Amino acid sequence: MAAPVKQYKGILFDFDGVLARTMEDNFRAWRSVFLDLGKNITEEQFYPLEGLRLQDVALTLCDIHGVREVGMEELVRKKDEFYLKNYSFSLYPGVEDFIEMLSKAHVPFGMVTAARRERLERTLASYMLKKFSTIITGETGGRGKPYPDPYLEGARGLGCKPEKCIVVENAPLGIQAAKAVGAYCIAITSTMSADKLRSADQIVESFEDLRRLDIITFLVDNFQTTT
Fold it and tell me: What is the DSSP secondary structure assignment for residue 202, as one 8-state letter?
């Protein structure tokens, strides 16, 4: 779908599976939690849940496996505890260069994630966190993805209307949330195949591909000439 590139004023990124290669570690953490309950979750069950608030991930996996009388907050705590002890965090290739390009052009950009702030601060370098104009995490009020609330909050944090935002996502629930607010959504096939991301406006394979899109080059050039 062709984008009316002149209207866009900012970019919102999901974190897990978009900026950072974390989904594998997240899966291992949830798998460990459920193995302790005698249940073996699969990637096919977990990956489509990407974007949900952590309590909702826990609840959905409990429903799938018939787990009852277990506190969701306790499962989330154990998951995060395992993650922080065992993660192998890295940003995807091209992410730092892309962020630096936006920063130099003074393009407003933010992060909208179900991750909790503590995990971001303990895994993502502080100099990188400080570059984001707004960071919406799983603790933020309102409903999580696929509801529009997180991206509405993200757009407010950038100081622009949601329909003037570009969203970069990697999962169907996040795409649904982005489209619900009228944002232009670009999906990246970092964790799921393109056929599962068809509801996005455009699909790319990497940040290098993202950087070459007309909608991105126009946005950056427009800010460079007006600041």
Answer: E
